[in-house]
Amino acid sequence: MNKDKLPIQEENFSDWYNQVIQRAELADYAPVRGTMVVRPYGWAIWENIQSALDERFKATGHVNAAFPMFIPMSFLEKEKEHVEGFSPELAIVTIGGGQVLEEPLVVRPTSETIIGHMYAKWIKSYRDLPVLINQWANVVRWEMRTRLFLRTLEFYWQEGHTAHETAEEAEIETRQMLDVYTDFAVNVAAVPVIPGLKSDSEKFAGAVRSYTIEAMMKDIKALQSGTSHNLGQNFARAFDIQYLDRNNELQYCWTTSWGLSTRFIGAIIMTHGDDQGLVLPPRLAPIQVVIVPIFRSDEEQKEVMRVVEEVAEELSALRVKIDDRTELTPGFKFNDWELRGVPVRIEIGPKDVENNVVVAARRDILGRDGKIRINMAEISMQIPALLDQIHNNKLEKATKFRNDHIIEPLDYETFKTSIDGNWALSYWCGSGECEAKIKEETKATIRCLPLDQGNQQGACILCGKPADKKAFFAKAY
Ligand SMILES: [Zn+2]
Q1: How far is the CA of 465 from the centre of ligand 1 (A)?
Q2: Which of 143, 334, 356, 472 keeps 20 to 30 A from 448, CA to CA?
Q3: Rounded to the nearest 5°, which phi and psi values hold at 147?
Q4: 17 Cβ neighbours under 8 A, 6+ residues apart
Q5: What pLDDT score does 82 carry?
Q6: Share of residues in the chain with pLDDT > 90 (%)
Q7: Nearest of 357, 319, 324 to residue 341 by alpha carbon
């Protein structure tokens, strides 16, 4: 561990972000510009994200499969908006096994096309529907400006692809998966996201409607953290995904796709982290509890370690680590685990052994205020309850922070002067011109039209024309 202090968030958030990732050993830069290595501690977070999502996907009837990473170039060209949207980001293979290929192959930037091709083959009748498949995969998008986890040439994600009989069913599916992402973000990651609809200019290339969950980072920027797309019949027409309906007539399917990626780790880092380092949400933390034994003599060590083992055994249902490194002082270890964001640290010394207690220290409340003495007999009850409290506290804090930085400016002048340190919730007339002008003048984009807005009437923040929808405007990653 590097002994220099981390940069202060308020002074240089971006430097803080890069350094905390490397010092906590979540990820590192790889030899090819813009690619990253996800290190074991970072990958363990991703595995926990995967299992929380996978459980929810399966509970809603989805199954997993694996499709190839190479896609014939011609497939991407079949859906016009799709190829336009992705062309600048494609990695293309032209040589294989020493031979120039007859048709170039695209390294998948996303898999609608190849999965659409296969669905056309598999789906014959309404009896085959719905098809509800997800895949866990890596994809490649040749980005120019990259950031660890947020934007890298290659990243890991899941992509769900479903096909349905009716437009209504496809919309229900799209919204259901948005709800799954929201539930995961809020109740597992303690990241309070705002679910909403993307404007046309921000929607997925080839989609009819894109929904998103948007999260506010500690530097107030927005991070799109997961998306769910209603593809209508666009891909079904491009790939001839047809079925015989209940009247024996040939119809095009209605399809959806939805994805959440390793970018979400960036959301966790920037929602919860502080000047001491990472603060991991307990339900995703690779290590939920670290036990640090404290002793001076061999005799004390023997006594303390006996109790340490006992406590670890009591907590075997949790992800527990015993830090028995002998070459390091307890103080060094405390800092180290704080940097790595472990939610609870348990300290056990000779006095504690004598008194039959342990001291639990919360990562979300540093110092004396976050320390609790727990009787040995109550550990298996108290620690899981403490983890839930920490989750709730993290969620509450992040929600308050977000709400404190949402404004509803009365006019465009106020909008312009306050958009740097806030998100603006403003009426928008729906015109792409207003959206583009606001972006040009303030660098703020429409993050989403939040779903929970009533039937109100107002005036567009820019042009003043009547508007019945509000949108969140913010600078974004
Ligand atoms: Zn307008």
Answers
A1: 6
A2: 143
A3: -140, 140
A4: 147, 148, 266, 269, 270, 273
A5: 81
A6: 94
A7: 319
Q: What is the 365 CA–ligand 1 centroid distance (Å)?
A: 45
Give residue for tokens 């350094």: 19
Taken in order 419, 422, 423, 424, the sign of the CA dihedral is: negative
pTM, rounded to two decimals: 0.96
Which of 89, 194, 103 minimizes the C-alpha distance to 141?
89
Whether pLDDT at 368 is above 80: yes
CA 380 to chain centre: 31
Distance 192 CA to ligand 1 centre (A): 29
Residue 214 phi/psi, 5-degree rounding, is -115, 135
Find the 469 Cα to ligand 1 centroid distance in Å: 11
* SS3 of residue 249 by DSSP: coil
- Chain centroid to CA 450: 18
Is residue 147 within 8 Å of 265, Cβ to Cβ?
A: no
Residue 176, helix vs strand vs coil: helix
Cβ contact 83:127 at 8 Å: no
Token reading at 375: 């009787």
The label of the residue with tokens 């959301």 reads 267
Ligand 1 (ion): residues with CB under 5 Å are 429, 431, 434, 460, 462-463
Ligand 1 midpoint to CA 409 (Å) = 15
DSSP state of 405: T
Which whole-number Å values give the CA distances from 194 to 30, 225, 345, in the listed order? 33, 10, 32
Tokens of 460: 């567009």
Residues 230-286: tens digit of each pLDDT = 999 999 999 999 999 999 999 999 999 999 999 999 999 999 999 999 999 999 999
Residues 80-115: tens digit of each pLDDT: 888 888 888 999 999 999 999 999 999 999 999 999
Residue 186 has pLDDT above 70, yes or no: yes
Residue 419 CB contacts under 8 Å (≥ 6 apart), including other chains: 442, 444, 473, 474, 475
